[in-house]
Amino acid sequence: MIAKASVLIQQLNELVTEIESHKNDELNRLRKQLHVVESAIMALEMNGLPVPSDLKETRERLNGAIAGQDEAPVVLTFLEDELRKIAEKVKKAGNSKGSARQVQIKALKITRADGKVSVSRALLREDLIATLKDLGGSASKKQVESELEKRLRGKLTDADYEIVGVGIERWKENVQWMRYRLVQEGVMKNNSPRGIWELR
User: Fold this and answer.
1) What are the residues whose beta carbons fall under 8 Å from the beta carbon of 85, sequence distance 6 or more?
2) Nearest 5°: phi and psi at 163?
3) Which end of the chain is more exposed for a tag (fewer CB within 10 A), N or C?
4) What structural domains does the chain harbor?
5) pTM of the prediction?
């Protein structure tokens, strides 16, 4: 039975790696465009100027395009959540503690297409929500990142600390995208004051 479980885990890891490899340049280009548009909108709002409807429409169009192309991370998050549930069932069933621990470790980290290991999105999601709850449901982005990094100490890898995108560490960029997903899911507020992250 353990041999069958090992084969299943290996197949799931291969699937995760394949899905992860589907991230492409087009998605990164859309994300950068969205970042520029959101920065322009924030600059206008901070100066008390009206935001042109064309700029708002561009933001919505880019969000839609990203959501359409950003299927791989959603599938990865689903797979990671399911692996975590399986690990809990194995643990509760009283099977080998070592085997249960191996399944949990696989659920906590993913192997990227480039062969590097990163903390899983499922873990980022779980810990982001827990961190916000610990902070009373609302805190500054900087405070959330600081507390979240403490919570993830020992789990973040060298790949997580690589500088990516707009010059931030990979794990922070992944947390920002996780926040975006949680806003879309209605778990976090969309209309929080600038720089504040809040649970609903």
Assistant:
1) none
2) -80, 130
3) N
4) 1-112 (no CATH), 116-200 (1.10.10)
5) 0.49
